[in-house]
Predict the 3D structure of the following.
Amino acid sequence: MENKKEQKSYKTRQRTQILDCLIDNKSKHLTADEISVILKKQGNEVGKTTVYRSLEKLMEEGSVRKYICEEGKSACFQYVDDSENCHRHFHLKCIKCGKLIHLECDYLSDLEQHIFEHHKFTVDNTKTVLYGVCGECSNG
Amino acid sequence: MENKKEQKSYKTRQRTQILDCLIDNKSKHLTADEISVILKKQGNEVGKTTVYRSLEKLMEEGSVRKYICEEGKSACFQYVDDSENCHRHFHLKCIKCGKLIHLECDYLSDLEQHIFEHHKFTVDNTKTVLYGVCGECSNG
DNA sequence: TTGCGTGCAAAGGTTTTGCATGGCA
DNA sequence: TGCCATGCAAAACCTTTGCACGCAA
């Protein structure tokens, strides 16, 4: 069974640096590869395998969230910052410049409520990203 | 403007069957592999390469749309049924049973309008899927 | 006949797994 | 010392590309 017993977890250089990297970039969605590259540039090389495995652990612990991004080629990860209430708002992602926008807005909460009441569907904005074009890119 | 020089396009057994398959399943999101399997079961085997290439053509023609789905492993495709106005509504997808729900609702159009006016962002619901749990699965 | 379509094989890119070694507690 | 963590190599997947042959028009 999915016994969510907390598993032991050691504090290692690699895992710490991966988490730090995600925190430093908490406004962005990073791919496993991007994390790997950033760490390398900082002189903190970490094997790709370890990046993937650490991200998985961090997701289980709830510190990190996985998103499926527009490109579809690779998954994106983002630090879960409780102070930003990311579980309560929607994310918009520009398909032109890739910018990620955190949308804090009561209107959106109402939307969720509406969908739940009228369509019997519980939206999980942890997994949901609205795609489109941001103001800057549409002016271009 | 969508002025893509129209390329010549031959009507072949494979392309016809792929499109038929998408039409038969127009309420679902199918992966390239699923299409391949369905056709095989019908005795209409089509090479994977051909499935991918045909889907690309069909997308250019505007008959088919590509979505990035939750699993993230593979892309999903769906027939564009103009009579259903899929470009005007949102799609909900249940992360438990995989069911796809077409949400026809004025409230949602307002949402788009709201995001555009207040957040300068043009949502493309061609690419957007709201993830969550449907009524049946949450009762389970 | 022309040139797009098809499909096998192979390449490319991302993610996972096997296994021996390393390192936290 | 007991385990989890790490990382190389290889496997597993999904998708794309090269190439020779097939087939619609």
Observations:
- Residues 1-5 of chain A have pLDDT under 50 and may be disordered.
- Chain A touches chain B at residues 66, 68-70, 72, 75, 92, 94-95, 101, 103, 105, 107-108, 111, 114-115, 118-124, 127-135, 138 (CB under 8 Å).
- The longest strand of chain A covers residues 129-134.
